Each structure stands twice: as C-alpha cells, then as structure tokens.
C-alpha cells in the first residue's frame, strides 16, 4: 500500500509550488535534526569504522554482565515505577473527582505540583534526607526513637523506584482525573438506578471505561522511567546500580568520548529505542481497542461517593503525601543551600546567604544560569516556529507526500534524551563538515530534536481546531493566501504556539539527561552544574543553585498560569 | 392509593429554588409527563424521585412507603428503589454488547441463569433488538442505542419507569416512531411511567396526564386535551400549542385591539370580573377565521404568507399587532398585502 502513495507523492513533486517547497524544507529540517542522528546511532552500532556490517561487537557488548544487569535494572525500575505510579495516580484521581473530599480543587492542583520539581533535584534532596550515612531524616529518627541504625537507605532499587514515582505519578493522575471528569455521569447513574451498588459500578463500569486513559498514562511513565537518567544516577552510582542511560553516561565519560565508548553507547541506545518503540506500539494498540465514546453530552455533576468518617483521614493522607513528596524535599534543598558547611545541624545559626552570593559571583555557576536561559529561550522560539510550520503542512496543506512528514514528526516521541545526545554527537562532531562539539550549538540542536515533538503536538492540536472554512471565508472575502494566514490562522493558533513555547522552555531550562552528555568546559547548563557540583561533593553549592533554579521555575509557572488565564478570558 | 406521591417537595441549588413546594400524585399504570422550558425544575424533580438528588423539604412516597424524607431523615439510595431509568444520552455501557447491557443488572442480582436469559430475550424482542444482540453499542444507530436502554429498563420489571428526555437526541422522524413504541410498551406491561420532556407534542402524544412547570412551580396538572383547551394561565397557553397574545382595550361595546381600536371589535362578550381597561386575549392560530367585509370581522392586512404543506401560515397585521392565522390551503388563498377581516373564536382572557 505504501508504494502507490510514494509514487503519487513523487509525481506530485513535479508540479512544484510554494506548498511543495515548504514541504521539502520541513522534511529536510526533520531529517537533519531528528532522523539523521538516530540513523547514525544504528549505523554506528552495527558497522565497523570501515563501514562493514558487524554483529560481533554488538553480541560482545550485550553479553557483558554490566550490560544485561543495567538492562535488567532499567526494566525492574520501569516496572516498579509504572506499577506504583498507576496505583497512586488512579487512587488520587478517583479521590479528587469522585468523592466528597474537602478542598478538592486545591488538592487537584497540588497533585500536579510534583511535575514542577525536577526529578534529579528531588533525588538530591532524598539523598540528603535518607542517605544511610548521616541523612538528616535518618539521623533525626535514630535520635528520636533511639534506633541502632539508620531506618532508610535510599541507595537501593527500592529507593530509586520510590523517588522516581514521586515525580512521575502525575502522568497517570492527569490522564485518569481528566477521563473521570469528562466521563458521562449517566453511564454510572444508569447502573445505579438499575440496582447495582457503587462498589460494583466502580469495578465493572467506571474502571473498564477509563482503562485506555490509565494505560496511556502508565505507558508514558514506563517510557520516561526506562530512559530516565537523573534519579538512578544520583541515587544508584554509590551503590553500583546502573540502568541503561547511566551506563551510557558512565561509558562515555570514563573514556572521554573514545570510539569504543561511543560504540558501546550506540548499542545500548539502540536497545532504548527498541524498548520505546515497543511501548509506543502497545500504547497505540490499547488506544485503538478501547476507544469508547464516554464524553458527556450535557455536563452534570457525577455522583460523589460520601466518604463519611473517612473524609478527614483521606484529606490528611493526601496532604501528608504532598508534604512528604514535594514540601519536604523542597524545604531541605533550600535549608541545605543556606548551610555554612554540609553536615552541620539545620539550625538558624548555621545558615548564611554567602552560598547564594557565591553562586552569583562564581563564573561557572553564573554562566550555567546564563547558558540555560539563552539555550532554552532560543530552542523554544526556534522549535516553536519550525514546529508551527511543519504542523501547518501536516494539518492544512493540500500537498502530496506529506505522509513522510507525519512519519518523521512521530519519530521524536519515541526517542529518549540519551539517544538524542548520542545522535547529535555522531552527527555534529565534524564528521559531516560541521563541528559543534563542546559548543553551546550542539546542546541547541539536541534541544530542538528533543522538544520538536512537544511543539508539533501543541501547534497541530490548535491548528486542527481552526476549521478550513474560516480560512476559506477570508479567501472568499478577497484576502490573499498570506493575508488569510496572517490575519485569520495565526491569531487563532497563537495560544497553541505560546503553550508550545512554554512546554519547551521549562523542561529545557532544567534539562539534564541530554546536556550531561554534551556539555563542554564553558557550556554547562543549570542542570549540569547542579549535577556536577553534587558529584564533586559540593552539596551546599549544588543545593543553593538548585534553590535558585526552583525559584525561577515556580515564578515562571505562576507567570504562565496568569497569562493563560488572561488569554482564556479574552477568548 | 397513588403509586408515586410527592409531598411539599422543595429543592434549592444555592440561592436558586429549582423546585418549589411541589405536590403530586401519580397512579399505578399511568403515563405521566413533566413538561416545561429548560431550567423549570422538571429534570430535578425526576432526579429527586430517582434518588440522585436529596430533598431540601418534603417527602417522596412510592407504593405507600417513604423513599425520601427531609424531616424523617429517610433516604433510600437509587439502587434500592427498584426503578428503571432511560437517559437522554442513552447511557448504554460501551464495553458491553447489547445482550450484556440488558443482562448486567440482572446478573448483579444473582437471578437464575434461565430467568436472566428469558427476561433479556423478551426485552430484546419487544424492542426489536434480537438480531443485533451480539453487537456493541458503537456499531448501532442512536435509535437502536436508545432501544438498548429501553430493553434494559423493561428487563428490570421496575415499579416505576423514569424517562429523562429519552427522545431528544434522536432525529425527528425516529422520535415520532419511538413515541408510539414507548406508549405501546407502557400499555402492554402497564408500567407507571414518569416522562420528562421539553417537547409539548411528545408529551401530549404519550401521556395520560401531564404537568406543566415553570421556574420550579407547577402551573397545571391535567390530561393533555384539557390542558390544551383549558389552560390554567397565560404561560400554559403559550407553552402548549401555537398561540397569539393580543393586547386589547376593554371599552363600551366590547374589546378592541390596543394599537388599532378602529379596526373593529374582537368580541362583545366580556367575562364577569374583567373591569380593567386593558387585558390580553389569547387565541390559537387555527381558531381564527377569515370572513367577508360586513360580517363584523376585525380589519387587517396580510403581511406574509407561508406554505407549510397542508397548512398556510399567515401573518396578519391589525395596526401594529401581528396575528398568526393558520388555514388549510384548500380553503382559498389570500395574497400578501390584501385587506382581510378576522373573526376570533374561543378567546381566552388574561390580565394585561
């Protein structure tokens, strides 16, 4: 079936116009930025430097114990995080949408807050709290309860799974609470009036109907966790626990980027890509199979389960969960960031503002803030604009051959950050004429590749809502194609473009996974600087810089919320 | 003894009183509909009857037993009421096929397998779904989906069947067809049916008695024909059937159109008690006749004529007042702009 379409696509190119040109440019951009680096990874993994097919090295690398141990760890961590996130996400989503829990709207907001906290900063906080050697929480509990040894050890698989879950569970929470809110309440009411009790309804009607949503959320968590670098790196390295991304980092860092290390990296990265593709395939399967129309026609309040005696305990449980997973780590980051020396008791007399002053005067940290801001603003602007153009071709343009673009646009969804970093190293290190290695440019192209998917998703969603007739109406009124685009389409998709900007800007600002493989002596980002300071044992400076990053993130989030609220009022 | 009884029922949402001191008795085997514009409280009343909403004041009594009571603090939950309900948005379970949709509530009651099968098959047969019983709802049309909901309700053999605008999501032709199906099923099984709708034709076609509500207050409860012919007030007159409201001045010798007293006298019979100089007269478009000059009609000019098939719809201006008149097209045509004379039959008098 593909070939006739391809033939048609090629014959279409004979009639060359503006649309065809834009299509070609879009394809070229995606190929250079996304497809080519990824192909290079596979090429590198399966060939010798002379270009001959080579499976021997692949087998050798895969049969090394540290490889399959890392693979096993990746799978176990991902499975654990997914299971735990699903249980927590579904439970809390049900609690805030289907029960009479007090302060529901506030709690709904709070459960999404863990998203704002970068997970590697969370991991550093938990290390400070629960390290078996002198973690503050451990010391506190030992003194309080007179224990013989520290109750918690965060340097374990369990520790990694729990900490990762804290920051990934909102994926499931958002999906499931959204589905529960949009679900037609009469589907449950009709069961209730037919004599079925609420517990059976929840089991036999509600959960089967929201299954696609929570599976989608769970698979997203699995994909993230499988290729997650921050938490396993911060908590696992002391105990010799590696997963695939940290092993790639280890291999490349230990050798300073030698050919063999890169080769090992590309083989491991190919595994990640395969795993991600498998998860994506499963997700499509589930979504296709379970797509029921459950959205309500007229909105009505769903039946709320009366918690009665459990109302207050459930509220306390929810608040406690937020306090432990968000408040406690954030507070510890700020407190330790103000300590004179790491390890001192957390007393006011031990606190100082000198760390913050030092962060702002020390060239390395100052540069890292500057680099991150410039890189993330630049990447967000460029990716948003290019993404808008590509989405426009995919959604609106009547041009043959755009299926190539659709395929290339899907690609970045499934490619983990570690893989992108390796790909850009291979593509932009001078082998093909341009050498960006050790410059900010290489991080920049990596960010564009990494976040293109976000831009496409957001802008194509808003373009799909602009009905063709709006553009046609303005054309019928005598406007030219460009006028119609400028005066009708662009203003209508502006909110989508703005949200694409922020969807890229914030993750890029705190990015670690990709940058940590790409930074040079003068191109550290905030994430890299925090990570490196922490690695070097400069915990106080690491947390001081982290608290600055957190302040920037929180202020930024508040500004977007204000902006998007104002935007919605105007609409 | 009435099957369903609502006593002094009141429901408030915040400051809005959705249902205000409602008293109602519905007999066993009666098909009763609640009619009114959106937001009049009809759906809220139904939901209180079903047990989805609790009462701020009053009692719901079914078969002599108190189901909800604000004073005695009694509340039987919806799943213990042995009712059945059909919703506007169908509310069939998309992950179950037609047979399972109907059987699920029965299975939950742990009835013997043979009985479940018998009841489901019978319900499917009565709703014409036997052939598609293996299908899933998304493979079926809107009408078929609503029949699943009906079949589910029939199989439950409820004491009261509640229908919440069940036909509003269907296209007009199907809507008329299903009206009669519902009515037929109701007669066959002698169900007590409470039917909520905003469509007056639907309510009139289906019900033994109906209740007209507005702003949470009952306006009239009676048989459809009685309500049509003897509306209790101006609101009911306007809501049920087509209507003209004519502002008139009451003077020596009869009532004349307020904006054109010179056009002629509408009626000389002024009901006792109407002393006021102004009043509103209400009249159905079909109750107005065209008469020849000199026969004592009110003089007007045809402004618009619309052909609606069997009927011609005229807009006649008497001064500044527009009057709608409907005549069978075989009764002769008037041209737009032509002068005509109207005789008003069956006028209803209301305060201005």
CATH architecture of the largest domain in chain B: 3-Layer(aba) Sandwich
Q: How many individual domains of chain A? A: 2
* SSE class of chain A: mainly alpha
Strands side by side in the biggest sheet of chain B: 7-8-9-3-10-11
What count of domains describes the coordinates of chain B? 2
Sheet of most strands of chain B: 6 strands, mixed
**For the CA atoms, what is the radius of gyration of chain B?**
25 Å
How much helicity do the residues of chain B have?
Answer: 10-25%
Low-confidence stretches of chain B: none
Distance between the termini of chain B: 41 Å
* CATH class descriptor name of the largest domain in chain B: Alpha Beta
Question: Which outline of chain B best applies?
Answer: elongated
Please provide the ordered H/E string of secondary-structure elements of chain A: HHHHHHHHHHHHHHHHHHHHHHHHH
Mean pLDDT of chain A: 85
CATH class of the largest domain in chain A: Mainly Alpha
Largest interface in this structure: A-B, 26 and 30 residues
Globally, the shape of chain A reads globular
Q: Could you tell me the mean pLDDT of chain B?
A: 91
Fourth-level CATH superfamily of the largest domain in chain A: MetI-like
Can you walk me through this structure?
The complex is a heterodimer of chains A (571) and B (352). Chain A has 571 residues and is mainly α. Chain A has 2 domains: 1-51 and 338-571, MetI-like fold, CATH 1.10.3720; 55-117 and 171-229 and 243-334, MetI-like (MetI-like fold, Orthogonal Bundle). Chain A contains 25 helices and no strands. The longest helix of chain A has 34 residues, at 65-98. The two termini of chain A are 43 Å apart. The model of chain A is unreliable at 6-13 (pLDDT under 50). Chain B has 352 residues and is α+β, with helices and mostly antiparallel strands. Chain B folds into 2 domains: 4-236, P-loop containing nucleotide triphosphate hydrolases (Rossmann fold, 3-Layer(aba) Sandwich), CATH 3.40.50; 244-351, Beta Barrel (OB fold (Dihydrolipoamide Acetyltransferase, E2P)). Helix content of chain B is 24%, strand content 36%. Chain B has 8 helices and 21 strands. Chain B has helices spanning 42-50, 98-108, 113-126, 142-156, 172-189, 200-206, 224-229, 234-239; strands at residues 4-13, 16-26, 31-35, 57-62, 65-69, 74-75, 83-86, 160-164, 192-197, 209-214, 217-222, 244-251, 254-257, 265-267, 278-283, 288-291, 298-307, 311-318, 321-328, 339-344, 348-351. Chain B has a 6-stranded mixed β-sheet with strand order 7-8-9-3-10-11, with helices on both faces. In chain B, helix 2 packs across helix 3, helix 2 runs parallel beside helix 4 and helix 3 (113-126) crosses helix 4 (142-156). Chain B is elongated and about 80 Å long. The two termini of chain B are 41 Å apart. The interface between A and B is medium-sized, with 26 and 30 residues.
């Amino acid at each position: 079936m593909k070939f006739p379409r391809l033939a048609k696509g090629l014959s279409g190119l004979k009639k060359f116009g503006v649309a065809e040109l834009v299509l070609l440019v879009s394809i070229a951009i995606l190929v250079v930025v996304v497809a080519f680096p990824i192909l290079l990874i596979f090429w590198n993994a399966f060939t010798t430097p002379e270009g001959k097919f080579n499976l021997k090295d692949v087998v050798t690398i895969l049969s090394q114990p540290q490889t399959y141990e890392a693979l096993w760890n990746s799978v176990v961590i991902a499975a654990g995080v997914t299971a735990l996130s699903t249980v927590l996400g579904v439970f809390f989503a049900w609690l805030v949408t289907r029960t009479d829990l007090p302060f529901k709207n506030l709690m709904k907001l709070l459960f999404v807050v863990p998203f704002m906290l970068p997970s590697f900063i969370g991991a550093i906080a938990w290390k400070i709290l629960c390290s078996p050697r002198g973690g503050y929480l451990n010391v506190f509990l030992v003194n309080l309860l007179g224990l013989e040894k520290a109750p918690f050890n965060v340097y374990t698989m369990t520790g990694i799974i729990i900490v990762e879950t804290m920051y990934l569970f909102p994926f499931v929470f958002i999906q499931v609470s959204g589905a529960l809110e949009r679900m037609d309440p009469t589907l449950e009411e009709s069961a209730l009036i037919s004599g079925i009790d609420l517990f059976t309804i929840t089991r036999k009607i509600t959960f089967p109907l929201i299954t696609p949503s929570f599976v989608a959320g769970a698979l997203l968590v699995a994909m993230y966790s499988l290729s997650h670098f921050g938490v396993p790196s911060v908590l696992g390295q002391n105990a010799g626990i590696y997963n695939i991304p940290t092993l790639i980092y280890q291999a490349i860092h230990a050798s300073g980027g030698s050919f063999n290390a890169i080769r090992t990296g590309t083989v491991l990265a190919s595994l990640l890509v395969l795993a991600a593709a498998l998860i994506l395939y499963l997700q499509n399967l589930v979504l296709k199979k379970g797509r029921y129309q459950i959205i309500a026609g007229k909105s009505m309040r769903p039946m709320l389960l009366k918690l009665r005696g459990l109302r207050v305990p459930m509220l306390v449980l929810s608040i406690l969960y937020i306090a432990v997973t968000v408040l406690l780590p954030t507070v510890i980051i700020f407190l330790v960031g103000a300590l004179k020396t790491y390890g001192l008791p957390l007393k006011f007399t031990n606190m100082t503002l000198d760390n913050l002053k030092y962060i702002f005067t020390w060239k390395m940290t100052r540069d890292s803030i500057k680099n991150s801001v410039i890189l993330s603003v630049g990447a967000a602007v460029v990716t948003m604009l290019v993404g808008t153009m590509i989405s426009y071709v995919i959604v609106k343009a009547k041009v043959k051959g755009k299926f190539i673009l659709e395929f290339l646009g899907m690609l970045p969804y499934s490619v983990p950050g570690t893989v992108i970093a390796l790909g850009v190293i291979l593509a932009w290190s001078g082998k093909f004429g341009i050498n960006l290695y050790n410059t900010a440019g290489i991080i920049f192209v990596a960010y564009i590749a990494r976040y293109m998917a976000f831009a496409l998703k957001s802008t194509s969603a808003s373009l799909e809502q602009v009905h063709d007739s709006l553009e046609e109406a303005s054309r019928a009124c005598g406007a030219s194609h460009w006028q119609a685009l400028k005066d009708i389409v662009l203003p209508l998709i502006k909110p989508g473009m703005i949200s694409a900007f922020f969807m890229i800007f914030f993750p890029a600002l705190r990015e670690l996974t990709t940058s940590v493989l790409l930074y040079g002596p003068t191109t550290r980002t905030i994430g890299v600087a925090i990570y490196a300071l922490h690695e070097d044992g400069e915990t106080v400076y690491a947390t001081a810089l982290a608290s600055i990053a957190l302040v920037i993130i929180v202020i930024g989030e508040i500004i977007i919320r204000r902006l998007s609220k104002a935007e919605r009022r105007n609409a | 003894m009435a099957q369903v009884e609502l006593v002094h029922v009141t429901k408030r949402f915040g400051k809005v009183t959705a249902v205000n001191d409602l008293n109602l008795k519905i007999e066993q085997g009666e098909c009763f509909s609640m009619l009114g514009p959106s937001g009049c409280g009809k759906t809220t009343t139904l939901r209180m009857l079903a047990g989805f909403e609790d009462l701020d004041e009053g009692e719901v009594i079914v078969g002599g037993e108190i189901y909800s009571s604000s004073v005695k603090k009694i509340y039987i939950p919806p799943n213990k009421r042995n009712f059945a309900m059909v919703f506007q948005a169908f509310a069939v379970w998309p992950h179950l096929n037609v047979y399972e949709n109907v059987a699920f509530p029965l299975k939950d009651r742990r009835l013997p397998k043979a009985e479940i099968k018998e009841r489901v098959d019978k319900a499917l047969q009565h709703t014409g779904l036997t052939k598609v019983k293996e299908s899933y709802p998304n493979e079926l049309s809107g009408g078929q989906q609503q029949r699943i909901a009906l079949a589910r309700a029939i199989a439950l053999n409820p004491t009261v069947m509640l229908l919440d605008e069940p036909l509003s999501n269907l296209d007009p032709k199907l809507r008329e067809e299903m009206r009669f199906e519902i009515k037929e099923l109701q007669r066959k099984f002698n169900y007590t049916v409470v039917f909520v709708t905003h469509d007056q034709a639907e309510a009139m076609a289906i019900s033994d008695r109906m209740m007209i509500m507005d702003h949470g207050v009952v306006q009239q409860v009676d048989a459809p024909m009685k309500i049509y012919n003897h509306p209790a007030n101006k609101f009911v007159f306007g809501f049920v059937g087509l209507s003209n409201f004519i502002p008139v001045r009451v003077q020596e010798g009869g009532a004349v159109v307020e904006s054109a007293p010179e056009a002629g006298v509408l009626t000389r019979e002024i009901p006792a008690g109407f002393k006021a100089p102004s009043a509103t007269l209400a009249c159905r478009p079909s109750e107005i006749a065209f008469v020849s000059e000199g026969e004592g009609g009110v003089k007007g000019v045809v402004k618009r004529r619309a052909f609606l098939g069997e009927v011609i719809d005229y807009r006649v201006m008497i001064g500044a007042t527009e009057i709608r008149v409907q005549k069978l097209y075989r009764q002769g045509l008037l041209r737009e702009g032509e002068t005509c004379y109207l005789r008003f039959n069956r006028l209803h008098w209301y305060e201005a």
